Amino acid sequence: MLLELKVRNLGIIESIDWSLRGGLNVITGETGAGKSLVIDAVETLLEGKADEDVIRHGSDEARIEGVFSLLGKKDARQLRGFLAEKGIRDVEDSLVVSCDLKRQGRSVIRVNGNAVPRAVLHQIGRQLIDIHGQSEHLSLYDRKYHLDFLDAYGHAMEMRNSFGAKATELARLEQELKSLAEEEKDRARREEFLRFQLDEINRARLRDGEEVELELERNVLASAEKLKALSYEAYQALYRDDSSSASAPALDRLNEAVAAMKRLVELDPSLSQQLNYLEEMVYGLEEAAREIRSYGERLEHNPQRQEEVESRLELIRTLKRKYGQNIADILCYAQKAEKEIESITHSTERREELEQACNTLKAEMGRVAAELSQVRSETASKLVTEAQKEL
């Protein structure tokens, strides 16, 4: 129901503010006073467009605004849902529709203050009001609304809405399928590249911390002869096997000190703790001497092993240039590559799921469409008979 109408600068109308009351409202006036312009204003408001010459002479734009009540409308809930889909929410008991017509530029249409395209206005316009007069304006004669009347009369709107929801879901699934198909070649190339990288990393069999160990081993191998000589020198200073030097080794001197301390303790037991210290030092030095000797004996110049270590370090450097700053980063990259490959593999499964879902939806839509068609066929003749009686 139209509650209020405001018209500015339309035809001969400069300004009209009209508040309608319930029931029959009658516009009276002499011929040429502009009564039909009021109806034209409502038509223009619902069409969202008009010729430039309808704008009042001397004005650059015209404005029409109508306030429509939604109270008591059977399809108010459906209308609110449609508006919500278009971003117009919080619609309560009334709807404000306005149209600004300009000589220069495009007309601006607003619903509750929100700019909307003309197509949206057309969708809601005929649900708000019927203009009775010329038969082409009667929604009863408008083919666009025949199915609405038929389905409402046959109580088939729920079935029709179900079909529409399935059609919308089918369109969404088919669009996702199309996107997957377009990306399939790119995904295949990406998967092949990732598998190559992952194979390169896995074949290296990297261990976190391995690079530090290899660098240490490389340094030892490069200085093997020098390290062997130094270890021998250290061992000789601690525990000499021959008597080629005039100076006594450290362990011999320390053993002499232990023997002297034992004699002291026999005379003065208060020095027993110091004796223990010296004996522990002897044991410690003997162990150190044995380990130093063993270390020196293990050392040898090994060009083959040195080459293996250098080759391994070069491999690690190559992988670092490609996949990260250290071995931990490289291994992390490999994990991410595995997950991405798994995701790509799942996309194939997703495609199969989508195809199955589309087939299921099509079958359901076929069933609903058949039921809806049957209801419409059974209802059509009854509706025609009832409508002819009323007309």
Q: What is the strand arrangement across the widest sheet?
A: 2-1-3-4-5-6
Average the pLDDT over all residues and give the rounded result.
Answer: 83
Any low-confidence stretches, pLDDT <50, length ≥5?
none
Name of the CATH first level of the domain at 2-139: Alpha Beta
CATH architecture of the domain at 2-139: 3-Layer(aba) Sandwich
C-alpha Rg (nearest Å): 48 Å
What name is given to the CATH topology of the domain at 2-139? Answer: Rossmann fold
Strand content: 5-15%
The helix/strand order is EEHEHEEEHHHHHHHHH
What's the end-to-end separation, in Å? 22 Å
Give the biggest beta sheet.
6 strands, antiparallel
What is the 3D shape?
elongated
Q: How many distinct beta strands? A: 6
- Counting helices, strands and paired strands, the structural category is alpha+beta
Helical stretch count? 11
* Residue share in helix: 55-70%
The CATH superfamily of the domain at 2-139 bears the name P-loop containing nucleotide triphosphate hydrolases
